[in-house]
Amino acid sequence: MAARRRTRRGRARPDGPHDDDAQGAAVTSPTVDVHAHVLLPEVDSLLDGLPGLTAARALDARRNGPAALAISGPMVRDRIPQLTDPAARLAAMDAQGVDVQLVSPSPSHYHYWTDEETAEKLYRLANEATAKHCSAAPHRLRGLGLAPLQHPDHTVRALDHALEQGLAGVEISSHAPGRELSDPAYEPFWSRAQETGAVIFLHPFGCTLDERLDQWYLSNTVGQPTENAVALSHLIFSGVLDRHPELKVIAAHGGGYLPTHIGRSDHAWSARPDAAAGCAHPPSSYLKRLYFDSLVHDPSVLRELIRTAGPDRVLLGSDFPFDMGTKDPVGALRAARLPEADFEAIRGGTASALLNLTQS
Questions:
Q1: CATH, domain 32-354, list 3.40.50.2000, 3.20.20.140, 3.50.50.60, 3.60.20.10
Q2: Which residues of 195-225 are buried (b: 16+ CB within 10 A; e: fewer)?
Q3: How many beta carbons lie within 10 A of that of residue 255, not counting itself?
Q4: What is the Cβ-side half-sphere exposure of residue 94, based on CA atoms within 13 angstroms?
Q5: Closest to 112 measured CA to CA, from 75, 188, 59
Q6: Where is this chain compositionally biased, Basic and acidic residues type (predicted)?
Q7: Distance separating alpha carbons of residues 64 and 81, to the nearest angstrom
Q8: 301-305 long-range contacts, Cβ below 8 Å, gap at least 24?
Q9: Please, what is the Cα angle at 292 between 286 and 297, to 5 degrees?
Q10: How many whole angstroms separate alpha carbon 8 and alpha carbon 25?
Q11: Cα–Cα distance between 213 and 206 in angstroms, integer?
């Protein structure tokens, strides 16, 4: 893919001959943001008026609380152009110094309450609409589809359909009603994802702690990191990553609380036979088999994530364009004051390889 030439600290400069300067040699790898969302009005139209939608919205309202909903609605409306218009998205990317986005549907589109027939319509519509959005700038936008976790028998078909649309893989939540990611029913899905090399983006929506988090936006600030930690722990302790060691799973929000508290998991694995029954190695070792975005909002936490997972397992992420993301993902990465090689890997080097981006 054609990338604007950047200095090693990520500042854009025109393509063409360059000289080494005080900032160091220029590099040509693109800056890649793996955590960016698209809003799909087609999905909302599909579900409008269906039985179950009212109850799902009521559950979401109960989990978030009225104060959060009163702010979230206008926040999303203000960002509709960036969420739906490729030209507005590209302009924002240019302002951020981002060359490539991995675009995933807003998690509000999961709708794991839908029946099999509706779920199939939904994932097909979402996959096709996301692919169409990305086709406006195929050298700069890569996409992810959806897979209906509430119907495990459909997940392989959903993944295959996403890949047929030219998407890189699918986005999933941390669980489905009555099912954790450790559920044996998902084994064919993990097998197919490994076989195809598809990317699985793990991004929670909602938190089962419900009304305990319905004030002060705790549903997001505490709920999202909790859901990430629980979901990843199910993948690790159940042996999913032993059985499918080449899975390409990217965990949003830096993997939540798990990477910075992985020592407790290791202790349980070594001290208790029930904790060690499902996985072959200490839990911390599996962090080096997963990928994590860099969106942790604290340079020291980012450095700890890199220490535990490895600099080759952390990818730039912004949660574009929502308010819980960052408007300057490269600046947030730079604030961690990383070694140059680590900075470059996270800025885009690792993601370029993971997504098979090519330069021209």
A1: 3.20.20.140
A2: eeebbbbbbbbbbeeeeebbeebbbbebbbb
A3: 29
A4: 8
A5: 59
A6: 12-21
A7: 25
A8: 301/254, 301/260, 302/254, 302/332, 302/333, 302/336, 303/336, 303/338, 304/259, 304/260, 305/254, 305/255, 305/259, 305/260
A9: 130
A10: 7
A11: 10
| pTM, 2 dp | 0.93
User: Across the beta sheet with 32-38, what order do the strands follow?
Assistant: 32-38, 100-105, 141-143
The span from the CA of 297 to the CA of 305, in Å, is 12
Each of the 360 residues of the chain gets a pLDDT tens digit; together they read 444 444 444 444 333 323 333 344 455 789 999 999 999 999 999 999 998 999 999 999 999 999 999 999 999 999 999 999 999 999 999 999 999 999 999 999 999 999 999 999 999 999 999 999 999 999 999 999 999 999 999 999 999 999 999 999 999 999 999 999 999 999 999 999 999 999 999 999 989 999 999 999 999 999 999 999 999 999 999 999 999 999 999 999 999 999 999 999 999 999 999 999 999 999 999 999 999 999 999 999 999 999 999 999 999 999 999 999 999 999 999 999 999 999 999 999 999 999 999 743
Looking up tokens 């693109």 gives 30
Q: What are the domain boundaries of the chain?
A: 32-354
Residue 99 corresponds to which tokens in the numbers above? 């060359």
